[in-house]
Amino acid sequence: MTDERRSTAEDDAAGGPDPEAPRDDGEAEPGHPHAGERCAFCELPIPTDGVEVNHDGETYRCCSAACRDALERVEFDPAAGGGHRRVRSGVAAFDSSLPQGFPRNAFVLLAGEAGSRDRAVHAELVWRALQRGEPAVVVSFKEPPGSVVQQFLTLEWNVLPFLESGQLHIVDCFTYRLSDRDRMFDRMDEWNAHLYDVATDATTTIRDPTDLGEVRNKVDNALEARDMVDEGLVLIDSLTELGTLVQPVQAYDFVKDLRADVSKGRFVPIFAGATIAGGHDGFPHDLGYVVDGIVEMRLNEEIIPDTLIKQARIRKLNGVLVIPEWHAYEYTSGLGMVTFDPEEEQEKTRRRRAAAARENGDAALDAEDGNGDHRKGETPAPVGPESAPPDEPKPGAEARDD
């Protein structure tokens, strides 16, 4: 029997663990004068007496002299130390699976099937950061700047003021494909030309995206210009597209270097999209050993017959508690991602149809069997948050505070 198992057996025989035995959860012993207290800088539990420091008549307790000195350096801002470690994404399905939030030093792969509205997920991650007052940098391999902006506006998220102020910046790795940019501008209508004009000053154009050194330098310059340390985020719209531009070894090195410089060096999270299509054993879908987190988005046709349900889950995320459950979702302008229960929504719609049929005296429309299957030739009940009547709250909307 190992020492650990012997100790457990002895504890059980004695009626439980020894109350005098030292605790190993990082907190002070119950009854300790500082039990339950957290460091004023790092916000972690104080396992010992800690260190006190006085400022403007207030007493601050830190876990160590190093944290005390750091608190003095930030002029006794009690949120400066702990606030950088985790952040709420603001995206419904993600926050439901992450009660502790996202680590700020994470590189997260967003792997989505075609049709899962992964671009809307990308836009919402950026929009929520802007709403928090944080800067964001979008590295676009798949779309020109005007289309990046249009994605936000389609969801009724007006990013034009953030582009103008510099809080949102675009690193353009797409426009190099255009052999005649002036010809493209000549074909634009007034609205699209306006979007490009607004985005111009907020865009850094990469001359040759196959030169990954240039891409890294331009991303670093964008972060430096916005003092992005411990705040904001970087979004890369498509590692799949990146993988078509360079050799796999170069692509892997790019991801590793960017993770080291940005996520680990600046405590700025990176969210990188990847499209799942057909076989996906190569780059970027074999990055599981490199990235800190993996988010999966798929279309499920097994929940409701003849219906594709969008689902998202977090497969892994280092450093925080993850509840790896699938969440059904849809996107609604203004609200963003709304989660819902597909079977419950279909049943609600079915009941409303039956009630309406009874009121109208239409027995044919009420001819559904006990299993809820629609009769042949009848349109199935719609599924999703958009099917809720105007006077009912959309599922998941009550959980959003923004």
Question: In words, what does this structure look like?
Answer:
Helices cover 33% and strands 18% of the residues. The protein is globular, with a radius of gyration of 26 Å. A 10-stranded mixed sheet has the order 8-7-6-9-10-5-11-12-13-14, sandwiched between helices. It is α/β, with parallel strands linked by helices. The N and C termini lie far apart (55 Å). β1 and β2 (58-62) form a beta hairpin. The protein has helices at 3-13, 65-73, 92-97, 118-131, 145-154, 160-165, 181-187, 190-200, 212-225, 239-245, 248-266, 342-360, and strands spanning 51-55, 58-62, 86-87, 102-103, 107-113, 136-140, 168-172, 203-205, 233-236, 270-276, 293-300, 309-317, 327-332, 336-340. α5 packs across α8 and α9 (212-225) packs parallel to α11. The protein is built from 12 helices and 14 strands. 35% of the residues are buried.
